[in-house]
Structure formats: structure tokens, C-alpha cells
Design goal:
This protein is of the alpha+beta class and 140 residues long. The protein is built from 2 helices and 6 strands; from the N terminus they run αββαββββ. The chain is 16% helix and 41% strand. The protein is globular, with a radius of gyration of 14 Å.
Length: 140
């Protein structure tokens, strides 16, 4: 299990935009399983939505991307680099994510060619599908 400090040693994101709290497991270049503990104190809940806090889908997607970045940027040849979005495809949101949820983020790298790759990304809460899609990344 990687904690936030260990995660920061792999990916460049920092608070308030570090969207994963711990990494359960990862295989460099292949996969990662991470978690986001969704707190009522998250900065985005002040406006999304007052009285009805829901984690924005784009931030669920970003959380998944950061989990995938752990898998890609932990590869020896990618240390110190960044993984940027190249595309988001087939992303579907199936469940609202709210304060108190523990978001499980699973990313499997399904294709790589040079600095470009695609990750199959799945986010769940208590086993229920919250979001699923494909993320294209470019390592720079």
C-alpha cells in the first residue's frame, strides 16, 4: 500500500489536485488499483452542489487518470516525466459519488506504442459501478 507521500514520489500532482489517497497495488506499465476517500471537506463540494454534494464526473475521471499515471510513471524509463490526457473515450457515469464514499479506482493499460497508451478505467463504490471508460495518455 502506497501512502500520499509515496504517490507523490511517482506522479507530479499535488494538493488540492492530488485525487488519490492510497495505492493498493500496481504493476509498472500494466495496472494500478488506488482509492480516493471522498470527504465532505473537498474543495469542489462548495459549488457542486450546495446542499447536494456530488463529486464531478470530470474529477472521477481525473482520479482514474492519476491511478493510471502511477502504473505508467512508475516505469523506470518514465520516472520524472508526466502523463497527459490524449483523450477520454466511452466514459459513462453510473452512480453518484458523494461525501463518505470510498472510490476504488482500477486502471489496466491495454495498449502502448511509444509515449502513447490507452488505459481501461473503472471506478466503483462498495462494488457498484460509478464510472467506466478508456483514457488515452501521452508521456511527456
Amino acid at each position: 500500500m502506497l501512502n500520499k507521500d509515496e504517490i507523490k514520489s511517482i506522479i507530479p500532482q499535488r494538493e488540492p489536485f492530488l485525487m488519490i489517497d492510497e495505492v493498493e497495488s500496481f504493476v509498472p506499465g500494466e495496472s494500478a488499483i488506488a482509492y480516493k476517500n471522498v470527504s465532505a471537506d473537498e474543495w469542489y463540494f462548495k459549488g457542486h452542489f450546495p446542499g447536494n454534494p456530488i463529486m464531478p464526473g470530470v474529477l472521477i475521471t481525473e482520479s482514474l487518470a492519476q491511478a493510471g499515471a502511477v502504473a505508467i510513471l512508475s516505469m523506470e524509463e518514465n520516472k520524472g516525466k508526466n502523463a497527459l490526457f490524449g483523450g477520454i473515450d466511452k466514459m459513462k457515469f453510473k452512480k453518484m459519488v458523494v461525501p463518505g464514499d470510498r472510490l476504488k479506482l482500477e486502471v489496466k493499460i491495454i495498449k502502448r506504442k511509444g509515449p502513447i497508451g490507452i488505459g481501461e478505467a473503472i471506478a466503483t463504490v462498495d462494488g457498484a459501478l460509478a464510472a467506466k471508460g478508456e483514457l488515452t495518455f501521452a508521456v511527456v
